[in-house]
Amino acid sequence: MLKDYNRKLILEDGKEYYGYGFGDEETKICEVVFNTSVVGYQEILSDPSYTYQAVVMAYPLIGNYGMAEEDYETKIPTIGAMIVRDYNDMPSNFRSAKTLSQVMKTYHIPGIYGLDTRALVRRIRNNGSCLGMITDIHTDTQNAMKQLREYRVPKDAVPLVSRKEMQFYPVDNAAFHVVAVDCGMKENIVRSLNRKGCSVTVVPFDTSKEAIENLRPDGIFLSNGPGDPMDVQVVVSLIKELKGKYPMFGICLGHQMISLAYGAKTYKLKFGHRGGNHPVKNRKTGKIEITSQNHSYAVDTESLKETRLTATHINILDNTIEGVECLEDKVFSVQYHPESAPGPQDSTYLFDRFIELMKEERHA
Question: Active site residue: 252, 273, 289, 322, which one?
Answer without folding.
Answer: 252
